[in-house]
Write a structure and sequence with these properties.
- The complex is a heterodimer of chains A (248) and B (322).
- Helix content of chain A is 29%, strand content 32%.
- Chain A is built from six helices and 15 strands.
- The N and C termini of chain A lie far apart (54 Å).
- With 322 residues, chain B is of the alpha/beta class.
- In chain B, 28% of the residues lie in helices and 27% in strands.
- Chain B has eight helices and 18 strands.
- In chain B, helix 2 (70-84) crosses helix 3 (95-108) and helix 4 packs parallel to helix 8 (303-321).
- The N and C termini of chain B lie far apart (46 Å).
- The chains are: A alpha/beta (248), B alpha/beta (322).
- Strand 11 (160-167) of chain A pairs antiparallel with strand 13 (183-189) of chain B, so a sheet runs across the interface.
- Bound molecules: flavin-adenine dinucleotide and adenosine monophosphate (AMP).
- Flavin-adenine dinucleotide is lined by residues 206-208, 232-235, 248-251, 263-265, 267, 269-270, 273, 283-286, 289, 302-304 of chain B.
Chain lengths: 248, 322
């Protein structure tokens, strides 16, 4: 089985978000970048396929040279080979078309992407790829087993779960549940050393259109101070929620 | 060219997000000086959607679609888009619809913008305002394609009535077996309980509650309020509550009208996922807990004393206001 894990490079969850150049660009100053958490669960699931079922893992990212430490980390965790498409990932449709191109030539059986990137929160790249390539697609995937050409999966739905059956080639939008938090791997010294020897191919983007463009950013308006209610005056809270906030 | 809105139904009944999407589509159609057409699948009382400004209904009735199938629904809508010559499509943000719309965008090679919180800032070019960076910022996003899909956030724009008598047209999609190659085996869903995605009110518990045995009062508070229950990440990691209740940046997003956080410190990753909620209440013993900076109302106090008292007072309040 040949697996491609799509990795997006995102600001660490603790990052303060600021904008520059007249609020037209995300300010990367002082920001630590990491593997998108949803993709990290997917990469770990892929490692299990590798260890138990002898799968090969490639990782792919669309991004400039600055994303290489993130993709090297994926290699250090255990991916076999990496590809970076040398372009700014400006919007979902563009990224999906770029990734679709390498999936077409790579003859992958399984594509593991994340439910969403935590930076732009698009939640669209894997679904778009599935439509472009006519692959089966399962989103918000929290469990996946593959036997031969058959996949059984669990999808999170509003208020519950759905068991799903389908066939390869398959793409998933994964999240926590694929593996647990405690299963995530931290690269060890040996992994980091080995990663240096592994192939990281850099490809130029193919000509495609863009779906959208972010032209300006805003920070949320500053919030007013909290209204404190005494613990022995709960009725006052109910009164505020009913008459002032009008939410009950 | 009308605006096309997909209005989702469940067991034949429209969901709340269908009314939100229709209301948004009506506002957009007004700005574009056009009308709203909807596509509904197996909605039994489809005309109800006319209340929210929809003037034409493409009604699909098809047994094969009685269980949601993202690819098949995307195929149906793509055919409707082509039939109507629609260039702007409005969808909601439910889990099913987001799944479907990402496929639809790929089929149509359409620009797709999710988490949209306000009517377009401009229509030519089409620019919308959306949340980004897990609610730590907003982006003004311009569409670059001929066909555009707007995904409206839950509980953001609102529901507005604009009564019209819609024209109903039966729509026969052309579906093949390959549209159903991802098959539902079975669905395991809590019925009759509010879900985090749909609920107006969410009651959430954190590590401050000490253990799973103490969740009775959280459940009871939620029941009194008709709320969904949620929890912080460590609570689900430790197995006190199921993963499906984990909210935050790496869990489920919450955009409720009221979010009540009990024994939750308010870590940045937690707040990022729940900040889209309109009104936030915190109950915490520690006045220095970061949640107090993010909340609208707060009680510094012990959850084990405050929550039972809150349940009693709310019961009285509900009895008086019934
Ligand atoms: C990559 C990453 C992603 C993450 N994603 C998420 C996420 O999506 N969602 C999420 O929630 N977290 C997330 N976290 C974890 C987050 O950083 C915090 O660790 C977590 O939110 C803390 O949970 P808590 O508030 O329940 O627990 P704690 O931080 O331990 O807080 C417990 C609170 O309860 C209060 N308390 C104690 N006793 C009582 C009492 N009797 N009555 C009332 N209050 C009491 C305490 O004062 C304290 O403020 C993430 C972390 C990382 C690194
Ligand atoms: N620039 C990128 N490079 C590689 N994969 C990406 C990129 N952007 C998004 N993805 C993948 O698509 C998923 C969903 O991302 P998004 O649609 O941007 O929210 C991510 O979890 C990744 O798996």
């Amino acid at each position: 089985m040949k697996i491609l894990v799509c990795i997006s490079n995102v600001p660490d969850t603790t990052s303060k978000i600021n904008f520059t150049e007249g609020d037209t660009k995300f300010d990367t100053n002082g920001v630590q970048f990491v593997i998108n958490p949803n993709d990290e669960f997917g990469l770990t699931r892929a490692m299990w396929f590798k260890e138990k079922q002898g799968a090969t893992i490639h990782v792919a990212t669309v991004g400039g040279p600055a994303v290489e430490p993130t993709i090297r980390k994926a290699l250090a965790i255990g991916a076999d080979e990496a590809v970076r498409i040398n372009a700014e990932p400006t919007d979902g449709l563009f990224v999906a078309q770029q990734l679709a191109e390498i999936i077409k030539t790579g003859a992958y059986d399984l594509i593991i992407a994340g439910r969403e990137s935590i930076d732009y929160n698009g939640g669209m790249v894997p679904g778009m790829i599935s439509a472009i390539l006519n692959f089966n697609f399962i989103n918000t995937c929290i469990g996946l087993e593959i036997e031969g050409n058959t996949a059984t999966a669990i999808r999170e739905i509003d208020g519950g779960k759905e068991n799903i059956s389908t066939t390869l080639p398959l793409i998933i939008g994964g999240q926590k549940g694929l593996v647990e938090e405690s299963d995530l791997r931290i690269p060890n010294m040996r992994g980091i050393m080995m990663a240096r020897q592994k192939k990281l191919n850099v490809l130029e983007p193919v000509e495609t259109n863009h779906g959208t463009e972010d032209i300006k950013f805003e920070k949320p308006a500053a919030k007013g101070a909290v209204k404190l209610v005494e613990a022995d005056n709960i009725s006052h809270l109910i009164d505020l929620l009913h008459n002032e906030a009008k939410v009950i | 060219m009308s605006v096309l809105v997909y209005t989702e139904s469940d067991n034949g009944k429209f969901k709340k997000n269908a009314f939100e999407a229709a209301s948004y589509a009506y506002k957009l159609a007004e700005q574009l000086s056009t009308s709203v057409t909807t596509i509904t699948i197996n909605a039994s009382d489809s005309e109800e959607i006319g209340t929210y400004g929809v003037s034409k209904i493409l009604k699909v009735t098809n047994d094969k679609l009685s269980i949601f199938n993202a690819k098949a629904v995307a195929t149906v809508i793509a055919q409707a888009v082509e039939n109507e010559g629609a260039s702007t499509i409005v969808v909601s943000s439910s889990t099913d619809t987001k799944y479907m719309a990402s496929i639809l965008a790929g089929l149509l090679k359409a620009g797709y913008c999710t988490n949209v919180v306000a009517p377009p800032l401009s229509t030519n070019p089409l620019v919308v305002k959306r949340t980004a960076f897990s609610n730590k910022g907003f982006a003004h996003t311009q569409f670059k394609t001929d066909i555009n899909i707007i995904g409206v956030s839950s509980n953001a724009y609102g529901i507005f009535e604009n009564k019209v008598s819609p024209e109903v047209e039966n729509f026969e999609p052309n579906l093949t077996d390959s549209d159903f190659s991802v098959q539902s085996v079975n669905i395991d869903k809590v019925v009759g309980k509010a879900t985090i995605a749909d609920a107006d009110i969410v009651v959430s518990g954190g590590r401050g509650l000490k253990g799973p045995e103490n969740w009775g009062m959280i459940e009871e508070l939620a029941e009194v309020l008709g709320a969904a229950t949620a929890c912080s990440k460590p609570v689900s990691d430790m197995g006190w509550r199921s993963h499906s209740e984990h909210v935050g940046q790496t869990g489920k997003p919450v955009a409720s009208n009221l979010y009540i956080a009990i024994g939750i410190s308010g870590a940045i990753q937690h707040l990022a996922g729940i900040n889209a909620s309109k009104v936030k209440v915190v109950i915490n013993t520690d006045p220095e807990a970061p949640f107090f900076k993010a909340a609208d109302y707060g009680i510094v106090g012990d959850a084990f004393e405050v929550v039972p008292e809150l349940i009693e007072k709310l019961k009285e309040f509900k009895a008086q206001n019934a």
